[in-house]
Design brief:
The protein folds into 2 domains: 28 residues; 351 residues, no CATH class. The strands form 4 sheets. Strands 5-4-2-6-9-18-17-16-13-14 form a 10-stranded mixed sheet, with helices on both faces. A 4-stranded antiparallel sheet has the order 12-11-10-15, with helices on both faces. It has a two-stranded parallel ribbon with strand order 1-3. Strand 17 and strand 18 form a beta hairpin. It has 10 helices and 18 strands. The protein is 31% helix and 25% strand. Helix 3 packs parallel to helix 5 and helix 5 packs parallel to helix 6. The protein starts with a helix and ends with a helix.
Length: 384
Amino acid sequence: MKKTLLIVVIILAVIIALPVINLIRWSLQSKKPLDIIIVDKTVPNLEREHHKPFTWILTYERFVKKVSKTSYSYTKDYFGFFPKRPIRDKKWDRNDYRLTELINLAEKNDAIYFTDTYGVFFNDWYRGINKSRKSRKIYGGLNNNDFLLLKEMKDRNKLIIMEYNSFDYPTAQFESVRTQEKLGIIFSGWTGKYFSSLDTTANDFPVWMTAMYRKEYRKPWKFTKPGIVILKEKDIVVLEEGTQLKNAMPRIITDKASTQKYGVLPEVAFDQWFDIIDPLQNKIISKFKIDTTPLGDTLLSINGLLSEFPAVVQEPVAQRIYYFSGDFATYDVPFWTARFKGVEKLKGILYSDKPDDTRRFFWLYYKPLINGIFTDYYASLNKK
């Protein structure tokens, strides 16, 4: 009896001690001062899930603000849309940079990350509103000041990361085209997403897509299985598992050299929105792969599309500009875990070995990719 009790006490002591040890390990890491501009215009709630994962990584890897040497706050340290408490009152503020501030911002800061510029729309902000059609914009889209700040950062050879939907609606065409030119890529106009069910009764299914489909094909929407929908202005392509797709879940594939450099998985499932670009002279670090059938290949070909297209590209000369062709920085990560060293090793709790477990994307792809990019950049700035 005493032996059993002793074992229980030891197990409890270990369980209590491990978090404390990991917190101490985290706090003893060397801080890496780096001033980073974070832009997120898509903040329809207090979770800030479109840039919180990025801020989590900065905190976990000990990237801090230069002057205060403190970690970045996902609730305060960003430009964009700011919901106010209580959220039920639907009051909000904005934190935008003025034209007169752009040169100073570019001089002072080391990097900029446009995590999401899509914005906040009426149906997203006012919950319970009918979502059968697209709604008007409240705030969002890449604008002139965003472009000019990006230009100033590029002119100073600073690190630039931009994500999916920086070029499509609600960004104006003029801003879209010149931003593409500045990044050295061409946006095809096509965007897409995986859906675990194409049934219109599924939770949060964007039913406005069915009207697009009926208008283009003159027939009803009868899809119910998992699938991928790809859109371009008034055009829509639907790929359903079992007909046009062998497996509906898109994959991000990374070559051996980039896998070794960034420490990412060679293949990982991805279920968020993506866009399709022509990388021109940019280096492709990772690519999307859709597991199509011959029928699916034919449907893509008719629309000038392929089953493989860039996911991450890098400017090849200075190698300090990246474009992520997907909604990478969206994940509901528990922020309190950012201060516990080794938390990513909790496989089975945070993610599993299943290839289609989309939680693996954050822990085994996005996190090491961001850490690799910023660690290399920080080292390059601190070479003697």
